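Dear Dr. L.,

I hope this message finds you well. Following up on our conversation about the binding site, I have prepared a predicted three-dimensional model of the protein together with MTE. For your records, I am including the exact sequence and ligand specification that went into the calculation, followed by the structure tokens. Please feel free to forward this to your student if that is useful.
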Amino acid sequence: MLIRIDANEPRASEITPRAVHENRRLLLGALAGAALPAWAAPQALTGTRSAVPGAVTMEKPTAYKDATTYNNFYEFGTDKADPARNAHTLKTRPWTVEVEGLVNKPRRFDIEELLKLAPMEERIYRLRCVEGWSMVIPWVGYPLAQLIQRVQPQGSAKYVEFVTLADKATMPYVGSRVLDWPYTEGLRMDEALHPLTLLTFGMYGEVLPNQNGAPVRIVVPWKYGFKSAKSIVKIRFVEHEPPTAWNGAAPQEYGFYSNVNPAVDHPRWSQATERRIGEDGLFAKKRKTLPFNGYEAQVGQLYAGMDLKKFY
Ligand SMILES: Nc1nc2c(c(=O)[nH]1)N[C@H]1C(S)=C(S)[C@@H](COP(=O)(O)O)O[C@H]1N2
Ligand SMILES: [Mo]
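The resulting structure of the complex is given below.
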């Protein structure tokens, strides 16, 4: 069951100071080791490589340094460098995630319980921001479906809403008027249950850095980055499409679905191409953006018959 990681894959140990790296490794060792047999613990630092089609790309992962210093996490500031500078104040323990709404087994999970709920996998997904840049990141987590199955949604539950932490004491921009806080996001139930939708606890074989959404976030690889809510405290099952932070702030710019779609432009700029972070040298070519961020074969059928210009 355990699949070894390709030897040629760049490891964070090659690009971060050794002491820092050892520290994070130990943390994820405790995390992933708990979900796997003891003999597997050393390899489990990076989880098991996923067998889900589409969950691994052959593209070169973005440098760890870039993925952790060029972020969107508006609770900590609107500049790309702000989250890495400011998110050290985020307290990720103790942490609980309340799962509530239209489910037979509503439950409050302590983060330590949530870590052990299902085996960790490593998945190398592209993350495409609506602003026109993208990264390739080895995420560590397990399918959100694993959690959903355990709480038994009722037939009336058609959507899942994610509510994230809004703590004025530790998040300097909560209270500012850029967005309505808390930052919320949502998925249709079939999207939430899709095997590519990952409940994420780590990246590059290590626990999530605060600026990337510690201690738990969602990663939905075929949608624009803002759907991948960080630092989640509540998961709510509801009947109707829930309001979301960016849709509330600018509905004509950010739709509920927000599937990556090169054919539907943002009203203020094109979505046809993207700049891969780390390739931004003078002669770096922009890449063509792929429908559903390259995951069309896996998720296209979720939207069969829908007008994606209307449901953007
Ligand atoms: N709570 C919260 N989650 C968030 C955001 C945010 O501002 N707050 N920004 C989103 C956006 S716009 C993007 S592109 C991704 C960025 O994730 P990364 O910093 O790990 O690359 O996080 C998303 N999740
Ligand atoms: Mo984004």
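In brief: DSSP finds nine helices and 13 strands in the chain.

With kind regards,
A. P.
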